[in-house]
Amino acid sequence: MSTQSQQSGRVVILGIYVTDLTFRAERMPLIGETIAGSAFAMGPGGKGSNQAVAAARAGAQVVFCTRIGNDAFGAIARSTWTAEGITARATTVEGVSTGAAHIFVDDTNGKNAIIVASGAAGTMNAADVDAIEADIAAAQVFVTQLEQPLAAARRGLEVARRHGVITVFNPAPALPLDDDIFPLCDYITPNETEAAALTGVPIQNADDARRAADVLLAKGVGTVIVTLGEAGALLHSARQSVLVPAFQCGRVVETAGAGDGFTGGFAAALARGADPVEAMRFGCALAGISVTRPGTAPSMPTLSEVNQLLSQAGQPVSAH
């Protein structure tokens, strides 16, 4: 594909921004206990914003819609989007703080536990989506998640569907959902925990993921992609079922943001015209690099880095 066609890939993402406050330690403290940590870092985060950064670094033209507060964290958000070339449709809400996330990272294995307070983004509603309908109509792919209110996510999926735009729904964090939202999803990208919560099917392996995916297909989803951490990702539809192994890129430093990297990379590749399996491999490669770096948004690799990894693995790469 040509550079021009690559640059025509437009992705609109609806979601939240939070400032990540990341603490590293050997273990979680018990209630009432104080322990010494090994490191602290502050940086940009939030599922939607992380996905926007991942997609932008992967070569897509990105519009990101959210709400932030009139505070220092909101200023960090705007400077982040400017630096990444992301078009921000971000409403400032007076008297409400920008969101923040407490992230614990286990020093021994890079795994994490997260508490998110969405702040101003938690006040989003369907009107925020209606205000960016023209952006959605001009995009190839629309992405949303569940950190902002469900009503806003649903409207986004409805508007994208009305304009024939590919919809990617990342149902995180897992919430009870009415069945009528699933037919709005061309692609749904839960991890194994979220897929189990949505379907009631415990997931220990790829076969379990296929059974859970069949439940979601029966509810009207077009294609299900279950991310399986170290086991890779499963793409399952009525036409095919493909397990893409994870890319091993070195020592795992931090897994927070890996799912966001996958979804953002997958969306960027779809917007360029990649087929679903190629786009999934691209997302897996992007996520594989991200976990070797600290932070969420800051850990996202560039298009050239992902392409280099794909080339070394003998996989198709995106033109740039």
From TrEMBL:
Its cofactor is Mg(2+). It is found in: Cytoplasm. It comes from the Bacteria. Pathway: Carbohydrate metabolism; D-ribose degradation; D-ribose 5-phosphate from beta-D-ribopyranose: step 2/2. InterPro entries: PfkB_dom (IPR011611), Ribo/fructo_kinase (IPR002139), Ribokinase (IPR011877), Ribokinase-like (IPR029056). Belongs to the carbohydrate kinase PfkB family. Ribokinase subfamily. This is Ribokinase. It comes from Paraburkholderia phenazinium. The gene is rbsK.
